[in-house]
Amino acid sequence: MKLALITDLHANREAVQAVLDHAKAAGAQRYAFLGDYVGYGADPGWVIDTVREYVAAGAIAVNGNHDAGCVQDISPNMRPEARQVVEWTRAQLNPEQLAFLAERPMSHTEGDMLFVHANAFAPAEWEYIQGRIEAVRSLHATTCHYTFCGHMHEPKLFHLSGTGKAGDFVPTPGVPIPVPPHRQWLIVPGSAGQPRDGNPAACYAMFDLREQTLSFQRVPYDHELAAAKIRAAGLPERLADRLAHGQ
């Protein structure tokens, strides 16, 4: 089975549609969405409805920090820009869409796989996996051999051997990587809706369970249209500008 791993969609309809089309053409048989369906982009309702359709067909979908922010009280410490986006997003969503966000679990375990937005050691605290230290802490928090998470908007792969030796590397798009289960693996697919590694192309990853291989993918999309929608919605200009630069 081929499992498409998509995270940090961030209300970017153009990017999400491009990723879903690419994954389907690549033979995806199931989908896992790792959170942050809203925030930053101008199409939160469309993205939520699309993910809902996939969940109804058997997809996995967990909670993200931006999703939680839309259905909980806004933190007084939230930056004005982020507060503006949350308030705008709430006003765009209907009760069914808000309920879908509120119902998302913090994590999902299936067989030898853990799906979570931020990390395995404290999912609800939204701490980032910025390097090996956090990755090893996350891998130590689960017995699963495969942990899939988002939150970090850059694609990365971490691994931990049975002797405790850790490693990490930035994957080359489109190149299958053997991920045998005698190691633990932590996979960060990168952001579909707002990449931040200097490449504006949308990110996702494909896990081939039968072959035990993982491939990271980059998918070009119409980021100029996505940016134009952000500007038309009256959202902060910086959110539109960054799409063209992948930052």
Automatic annotation (TrEMBL):
CDD domains annotated for this entry? MPP_superfamily (cd00838)
**Which GO cellular component terms, listed alphabetically, does the Swiss-Prot or TrEMBL entry include?**
cytoplasm
Judging by the UniProt lineage, the source's domain of life is Bacteria
Q: Report the residue ranges that make up the Calcineurin-like phosphoesterase domain in this protein.
A: 1-211
Pfam family of this protein, just one? Metallophos_2
A molecular function (GO) held by this record is: phosphatase activity
Q: Which family does it belong to?
A: Belongs to the metallophosphoesterase superfamily. YfcE family.
Q: Know the name of this protein? A: Metallophosphoesterase family protein
Species of origin: Ideonella aquatica
